[in-house]
Amino acid sequence: MKFFIDTANLAQIKEAHELGVLDGVTTNPSLMAKEGITGQENILNHYKAICEITDGDVSAEVIATTFNEMVAEGEALAALHPQIVVKLPMIKDGVKAAKYFSEKGIKTNVTLVFSAGQALLAAKAGATYVSPFIGRLDDVSTDGLRLIEEIREIYDNYGYETEILAASVRHAMHIVNCAKIGADVITGPLSAIEALLKHPLTDNGLAQFLADHANAASK
Ligand code: E4P
């Protein structure tokens, strides 16, 4: 399973990259705004800076909501760097744009997916990635992981190559459960990825090993 980090924060992307487990980055307009990145030139330069840190795919989301504008914006984003994946919202024109980019060999990530039907459409349009938002479903008492299972079943039934990118991942158990279910990729914050490291028995065990070593060495 691939690990993407879901942030536009360069320091956190660098930290995840240095851990050696980072396969790519996803961003969205809210994450860019959170970092204070505004203005077209700054936004484009920021995507380029992200591509310089990671070797993996970097999702850059269009702001446009009509087909012609999505195509123009997506082509400009894709021209920035070979690692850029054009992120498109799951709306009618987004599906049309996913089909357009797929025929041109440009990678896409269809985002804001909350149902199996939407994921089926994204695959039919030839999207590279589909992004079901599991955390936001959990937030409204709907089982986000169940949606991943449904999409896995549908894609496997027909051999769709669209990768299931479990998005809106919030914590370590989301990642573990996505791995059990067969999501191709997860994207989440650095905190969720680093939480996989933690176990008190590891910390206690290491403390004991080091204490025993120090005691033996002092004799
Ligand atoms: C997906 O690519 C989105 O950027 C993201 O995962 C949304 O997560 P959130 O629900 O934590 O905002």
Task: Explain how this protein is built.
The chain is α/β, with parallel strands linked by helices and 219 residues long. It has one domain (2-217): Aldolase class I (TIM Barrel). It has helices at residues 10-19, 29-34, 40-53, 67-80, 92-104, 116-124, 134-139, 144-158, 172-181, 190-195, 200-217, and strands at 2-6, 24-26, 57-61, 84-89, 108-113, 129-132, 163-166, 185-188. An eight-stranded parallel beta barrel has the order 1-2-3-4-5-6-7-8, surrounded by seven helices. Helix 4 packs across helix 5 (92-104). The model has no long low-confidence stretch (mean pLDDT 98). The site of erythose-4-phosphate has 11 residues, from helix 7.
> From the helix content, strand content and strand pairing, which structural class follows?
alpha/beta
Largest sheet: 8 strands, parallel, barrel
Please write the string of helix (H) and strand (E) elements. EHEHHEHEHEHEHHEHEHH
Instruction: Report the total helices.
Output: 11
Low-confidence runs (pLDDT<50, min 5 residues)? none
How many strand segments? 8
